[in-house]
Design brief:
Layout (H helix, E strand, L loop, with lengths): L11 E2 L14 H7 L9 E2 L2 E3 L7 E3 L9 E2 L12
Parallel strand pairs: 1-4
Antiparallel strand pairs: 2-5, 3-4
């Protein structure tokens, strides 16, 4: 039984160990900002690309590409940013 078959689901492909992103020193604040629980002001997130260019899945760029973190925006949240 599916509880919410139309609920938006966001896929994020990244380079981290299991649960690493939920550590306060990594992307926990970004996840909370995506849910609107904390402000994203001044927050920087890993460089990323939108895979479909329409607010769908994103892919964080691997650290070895040397891309500096970027300012947080709702685009980082993918479909979660759609109202």
């Amino acid at each position: 039984m599916t509880r919410a078959p139309r609920a938006p689901v966001q896929e994020i492909v990244g380079y981290w160990q299991h649960a690493h992103e939920m550590h306060p020193e990594t992307q926990l604040r970004a996840a909370l900002a995506c849910f609107g629980l904390v402000s994203g002001a001044g927050l920087r997130v890993p460089a990323y690309v939108e895979l479909d260019g329409r607010g769908g899945p994103i892919e964080e760029l691997p650290p070895e590409r040397g891309r500096a973190p970027v300012p947080f925006s709702r685009a980082f949240c993918g479909r979660a940013s759609r109202s």
